[in-house]
Design goal:
Elements lengths: L5 H9 L3 E6 L5 E6 L1 E5 L3 E6 L4 H8 L2 E8 L4 E13 L5 H23 L18 E12 L7
Antiparallel strand pairs: 1-2, 1-5, 3-4, 4-7, 5-6, 6-7
């Protein structure tokens, strides 16, 4: 497991979602948007899987996973790669679900503010319609890739 620098934890925390990459049994890549609930400097990332679809199926067959986050305004991003495990709903710490609910409330607040500013891009608040998480994904990071082009760093 690789330690995650504070700067990267703060960068991930400033984004509203991440793109998770997994691979199916047949070798087909799959990408999905996920919200990061928590990151530990020791090298663990916690995400919720709300739908128990392709991501969960793929991780059962192949636990290798990546998490990518970019900030297009700053032209900066990172990809974390490692091995993931799934935690069933009934085994999830209730405090983690409350933390996730707080993040969802923050996303809704952000969307409302953007709407008031006239930057509304969606007619509703889709975060309010998200289901209760089905599983927790725990990624143990073993590689960090800086996606920022070298000449810009």
């Amino acid at each position: 497991m690789r330690e995650i620098p504070r700067e990267i934890i703060q960068f991930f925390g400033a984004q509203h979602y991440a793109i998770v990459g997994t691979v199916g049994r047949d070798g087909t890549p799959h990408s999905a948007c996920k919200g990061i609930v928590k990151m530990e400097a020791e090298g663990r990332v916690y995400l919720f899987d709300l739908y128990t679809g392709s991501t969960s199926r793929n991780l059962k067959a192949n636990p290798r996973m990546s998490i990518t986050v970019v900030d297009e305004e700053r032209f900066k991003g990172y990809c974390l790669k490692g091995t993931a495990r799934l935690v069933k709903r009934e085994e999830i710490d209730p405090a983690m679900i409350e933390e996730w609910r707080g993040k969802i409330s923050g996303r809704i607040t952000h969307r409302i503010i953007r709407s008031i500013q006239g930057v509304k891009k969606h007619p509703r608040h889709p975060e309010a319609l998200l289901p209760v998480p089905k599983r927790l994904i725990v990624l143990e990071v073993d590689e960090i890739v800086d996606l920022t082009p070298g000449h810009i760093r």
